[in-house]
Amino acid sequence: MKQISKEVYALLRGIVNKREKAMKAGETANSDLLGILMESNFREIQEHQNNKKIGMSVKDTTSVLLVWTMVLLSEHPNWQARAREEVLQVFRNKKWEADGLNHLKIVTMIFHEVLRLYPLVAMLPRVVYKDTQVGDMCFPTGV
């Protein structure tokens, strides 16, 4: 399973990199769901251009989310068919637009389930920097 995951990740990363180069060259790549997601992230990266960490994290988290989504959809073809049917129903022959993503309820549910099963950030450590009183509870420094 680990080898398959690596292969899927490499294939999807190649697709994402190819689309990214096309977008930087000025070509529009929003003819499908991946293109719409990448265009949205590309705009986000441009808005936060001064912070390279945000740009890199947006690309990496999108790649990880897409890899796990593809893996899980390949394991559950019934959900893959439902998502495909919903996308075709929402967009039909219309041009793909980011606003249309709000109408993709099944696709959104799938993304949320993927994020629940495979969170992008496994743990956020929290530390108390000074003695803190919350209600009747006291949290000492360093906890």
Can you give a write-up of this model?
The chain has five helices and two strands, in the order αααααββ. It has helices spanning 2-24, 33-47, 52-75, 77-91, 105-117, and strands at residues 132-134, 137-139. A two-stranded antiparallel ribbon has the order 1-2. A hairpin with a 2-residue loop joins β1 and β2 (137-139). α1 (2-24) crosses α3 (52-75) and α4 (77-91) packs antiparallel against α5 (105-117).
Helices, strands, pairings?
Layout: H1 2-24, H2 33-47, H3 52-75, H4 77-91, H5 105-117, E1 132-134, E2 137-139
Antiparallel strand pairs: 1-2
Helix pairs in contact: 1-2, 1-3, 2-3, 3-5, 4-5
If you compute it from the alpha carbons, what radius of gyration comes out, rounded to the nearest whole angstrom? 19 Å
Number of strands: 2
- Find the structural class using helix and strand composition: mainly alpha
DSSP helical segment count: 5
Average predicted confidence as pLDDT: 78
Sheet having the most strands = 2 strands, antiparallel
Shape: elongated
Low-confidence stretches: 50-58
Strand content: under 5%
| Cα distance spanning the termini | 38 Å
The helicity comes to 55-70%
Helix and strand sequence: HHHHHEE
Side-by-side strand order of the widest sheet: 1-2
Sum up the structure in keywords.
143 residues; mainly alpha; two-stranded antiparallel sheet; 63% helix; 4% strand; elongated
In short:
It contains 5 helices and 2 strands; from the N terminus they run H-H-H-H-H-E-E. With 143 residues, the protein is mainly alpha-helical.
